[in-house]
Amino acid sequence: QVQLAESGGGLVQPGESLRLSCVASGLSFSVYAMGWYRQVPGKERELVAFINGNNMTNYAGSVRGRFAISRDNARNTVYLQMNSLKPEDTAVYYCNARLILEFWGQGTQVTVSS
C-alpha cells in the first residue's frame, strides 16, 4: 500500500521560512516524479514544484526563486524549502507521486499571517 506522509506545516509570519517533508512508502521512490501542490478553499489544486527521477525541477511562477524542491532517494523523502513566505502562500500543501499511477498525501496546512 502506497502512503505519502507530509509534515512541516504550521503558522509563520510573512518573510519567514518553512520546510515541508514527504516520506513515501510502498513504492519504488527513486523512479517516481514527485510534486508539491497546494489548494485553498474554493480554488483548484495547483502545482507548486516538481522534481523527476533525474532531479529535473520545475516551479510555479509565483514561487520561483523563493521555494526549492529536493529529494533524498535513500530516505524516500521529498522536501519543499519555502523562503520569504507571503500571505498568499497560505494553503494546504499536498505531496504527489506520479509514474503510471498517481498518489496523494493527506496534506499539511501552511498559514502565513502576521
- How many strand segments? 11
Strand content: over 45%
| Secondary structure category | mainly beta
- Low-confidence runs: none
3D shape: globular
Q: What is the count of DSSP helices, taking H or I runs of 4+ residues?
A: 0
Q: How far is the first residue's CA from the last residue's CA?
A: 40 Å
What is the average per-residue confidence, as pLDDT, rounded to a whole number? 97
H and E order: EEEEEEEEEEE
* Rg measurement, Å: 13 Å
Report helical residue fraction: under 10%
The profile of the biggest β sheet is: 7 strands, mixed
Structure overview:
With 114 residues, the protein is mostly beta strands. 0% of the residues lie in helices and 53% in strands. It has no helices and eleven strands. The chain has strands at 3-7, 10-12, 18-25, 33-39, 46-51, 57-59, 67-72, 77-82, 91-98, 102-104, 108-112. The radius of gyration is 13 Å and the shape is globular.
Quick structural gist:
The chain is built from no helices and eleven strands. It has strands at residues 3-7, 10-12, 18-25, 33-39, 46-51, 57-59, 67-72, 77-82, 91-98, 102-104, 108-112.
Indicate the topology.
Elements: E1 3-7, E2 10-12, E3 18-25, E4 33-39, E5 46-51, E6 57-59, E7 67-72, E8 77-82, E9 91-98, E10 102-104, E11 108-112
Parallel strand pairs: 2-11
Antiparallel strand pairs: 1-3, 3-8, 4-5, 4-9, 5-6, 7-8, 9-10, 9-11
